[in-house]
Amino acid sequence: MITAGIDVGSATAKAVIFLNGKIQSHSLIATGADSIKAARRATDQAMEKAAVLPKEVDYIVSTGYGRVLVPFAHKNISEISCHAKGAVHFFPGTRTILDMGGQDCKVIRCDALGNVENFVMNEKCAAGTGRFMDVMAKTLELPLEDIGELSLNPVGIPPSVSSICVVFARTEILRFLRKGIPKSDILAGLLDALADRVYGLSCRVGTTPDFVITGGVAKNTGMVRRLESMVKMTASLPWEPQIVGAAGAAIFAKQILEKSSE
Amino acid sequence: MQQIRSIQEMDIKLGERFQKVFTETWEHKKAGGLVCWSTSGGYNEFLRELGIRVVIPEVYGMVLSSTGMSPELCRNTDIYGYSPDLCSIIRSFSGFALSDPPMDPSTLPFGGFPKPDVLFCADYCPGLVKMWQEFARVFDIPMYVMEHPWVPDAVSADPEEMGNKVQECMTEFAGAISFFENFSGQKLAEDQLQKIANNMKEASVLWHDILAMNQNIPAPLSFFDVANQFAVFQFYKGTDECVQYYKELKAFVEDRVANTVTSIPEKYRVFWFGLPIGYRMAQHIEKFTRIQVQPVMSQWACYFGNPNMETNDPIRGIVQYHNLSTLQFRGVEWKRDYILKLIEDYKVDGIILEISRTCQVINFDQKDIAETLVKKTGLPMVSFEADLCDERLYSDEQFNNAVDSLVEMMERRGPGRL
């Protein structure tokens, strides 16, 4: 049985091909302005890597903000359910998932089967999301992948970042730069403020081990370390944190097929 | 009695009632009559008998939200220098109330309403009290603030203490009557107040019965229909017209129950813990219809359904009516038990929590109550953040995500109504 999961997020489109209970291949591309094209390309890439033809894929589930736009999906399921399902596949002991994606941030509590028990999402605000990190990295003229590590090694006392609004935080960063504060210190202050905000969100549903962080921001070690220290537990990080939702979608596809053949 | 045949017809009747209120208020003002702007928390029912027409700007704020005018008007209030963190309903109607030069009424829903001669404020919302003070200053007119006591849980549980609170309110209410008698130069006759109380009780019983019919499976009305129809109370409470309106509505709903007609196909029933989002109501109805999920009740809809009101002493009866049915005046445990009972009575499969970002009244205990509801009922619950009038604080994606997730949780759980 071959199934596919496609997660069309605001920043990236991800596809996973699932074969005999395992992830056979995955792809990850920028969504851009055309979600349908991005979904198609991501799926084609994943199928190509798995050496699978479209007609061989038995069932496709789409998820993510663009889930309803995928014309070739058999069903769409919310990314809340897919992230829970996917996280339990990566780490069977998962009970709490913190997903920090391109445009939103959510904390999900689930049972041993990956069924959602409760969840909260951030409000209409970019704080703690990939988009926020992206803007800050550009403002500091640093590669996105470097900012987490840099934030863990401040030279002096990190400045207090009072605003987590993306526009005002950017203004504040520019002011710190003008004052000659090292970039590592600015990043430390910024990530302290962001982690605090995300931690507040996680308190609303409670953090029970195992605690898994997914989404692009899970690649930011500075953010991960801060959150681990706040929730007082080590986070499990999938080998590719951005495909957890797509993997969950592919697992749902498999379960739907199995149920229909019963 | 006129027979209502459809939801559309019901909504048309509602629109006609609204238009009548605003048209009559303008005519009254043009003829030299007095106009009062009042908060929606009640106690203003007697003003009509003193020749004072009542306008309730909060209700109009919801109208502005539904017609898509709120963003522009909220922006106006921001421009006048008020904080964008203030209640968006207040910002919405203040956007034209404080406009200088005044906005052209013909550009407003139902033709807007005239400036006040006097203000009446029941103090259940700190933001409203401050804005009413602001109106009093800007328009240089008198204001009466009815100080309503808060009723903590310990008082709710003690009949003697509760009696003292009712007595406190009666003194305040009598003070309000006296203030407006002096202002209008007219005297309120005892039989006039008695008639108001009788009408309030009769409409209240009718409303209670209408809401109770939503306990049927399927429910004859969605929460959105209920939220719309509830508005007639705001302008007509205490009148014969109000009683007549709800008699017709009750007959219509009875007919729907008898013929198993529902507004939204009902695969799942949910409790809407919060207020309706006026500017997205049409889209929400479309979505819920598509996914066959019917929000059947909300705690706010029950405000004026208080069949236990006494009418022997009209002042006591009116105080009981408002005091007993207004959640803002009550402690957390009382509110929680009240909502829990609704959830049980209306046999729902899940809960949708709407968090109004700029509402100072609801936000404080909403989360605690919501968590307890989930613990006590075991029902799945999702939340979304929004605001009643400020669209900037609402995201369609987040709403859809939350509701879709709730459906998935309800599907997995299977039939499990309380």
Report what the structure shows.
The complex is a heterodimer of chains A (262) and B (418). Chain A is an alpha/beta fold and 262 residues long. Chain A has 8 helices and 10 strands. Chain A has a 5-stranded mixed beta sheet with strand order 3-2-1-4-5. In chain A, a hairpin with a 5-residue loop joins strand 7 and strand 8. In chain A, helix 3 packs parallel to helix 5 and helix 6 crosses helix 7. The longest helix of chain A is centred in the last third of the chain and has 23 residues. By secondary structure, chain B is of the alpha/beta class. In chain B, 54% of the residues lie in helices and 10% in strands. Chain B contains 16 helices and 8 strands. In chain B, strand 3, helix 5 and strand 4 form a beta-alpha-beta unit. The two termini of chain B are 37 Å apart. The model of chain B has no long low-confidence stretch (mean pLDDT 91). Chains A and B meet through helix 2 and strand 8 of A and strand 8 and helix 16 of B.
Neighbour order of strands in the largest sheet of chain B? 2-1-3-4
Termini separation of chain B comes to 37 Å
Strand order of the largest sheet of chain A: 3-2-1-4-5
Number of domains of chain B: 1
State the share of residues found in helices of chain B, binned by percent.
40-55%
Shape of chain A: globular
Q: Uncertain runs of chain B with pLDDT below 50, 5 residues or more?
A: none
Strand content of chain A: 15-25%
**CATH C-level label of the largest domain in chain A:** Alpha Beta
Give the class of chain A from helix and strand content and strand pairing.
alpha/beta
Query: Beta-strand level of the residues of chain B, as a percent range?
Result: 5-15%
User: Would you tell me the structural class of the helices and strands of chain B?
Assistant: alpha/beta
Question: How many beta-strand elements of chain B?
Answer: 8
Elements of chain A, N to C (H/E): EEEHEEHEEEHHHHEHEH
Distance between the termini of chain A: 14 Å
Elements of chain B, N to C (H/E): HEEHHHEHEHHHHHHEHEHHEHEH
